[in-house]
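Quick one, T. Sequence first:
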Amino acid sequence: MAKALISKADLERIALQDNHVHRCFNSSLSTAERKGIIASNPMSRIEQLPSAGESDHGLALDEADLKSLVTGLKPSATMYVPVAVDASTGVRRNELLAFRWADFSDGAKTLKVERALEITKKFGLRYKPPKTWRGKRTIALDDCTVALLVAEREKHQRIMAGIPDGAEVDLTLVKLPDDALIFPARPGAGQDFDFAKPRDPSGFSKAFRRAADALGFAGFEFHHLRGTHATLLLDKGVPVHTVAERIGDDPAVLLRNYAKRKRKQTADTSVATVINDLSAGIFGS
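Structure tokens:
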């Protein structure tokens, strides 16, 4: 008798059921802990299973395809810079959209991850601190990414001061608000530019998916950029703990996900050199 095979749809249903059981059990034990029935919730020490939509670790682009994707977005005033920055840093979407200009240092060539956006039913869109101590980190930037962010900041300074493009002025005299976001929401028709208004994360992901599909990368989601960044660095021989620290992940989880992607490895272990070479490839310089 032929052995029955489990379909992909069945696997997704099983994954959803497992996550539902995990959430329900965790909720029950959390309530018991809060009421003093138990001393602590043992589920807090158990790694949560990824949801069906997050369980695919195989979608990682090689350098050539990543370059095609990023450069293909250059005509887009709203997508190119955030996608390019994400491709060169590997940050989570909600970390990316929560970056403020105060987190960026062109002199030190760094970006600080201090917060992330959170979508809640009660409060709507709000900021929250990173979930774990690994999440709060300082990311080293390559020269291309620094130059891209400096140019983006100058655009915001011109908007802030009402200075037209091309006019030569000393932009260092233009101070952006302390809570000004690097990637704020774009104003609607007749609206003023609100530098502190965040983009809708779901809408941003949908816009990226449409753009990626149009460029021939059907099925490539925004969160796959994070896996691509980590995979390319590991392929180059950057130590696991260094990559994990950079993307704010557990080294064990990173290795487990990486093991599901078949990649070639090289012996280059210099993270600074690798990141600069990778960025030069992404930006086509």
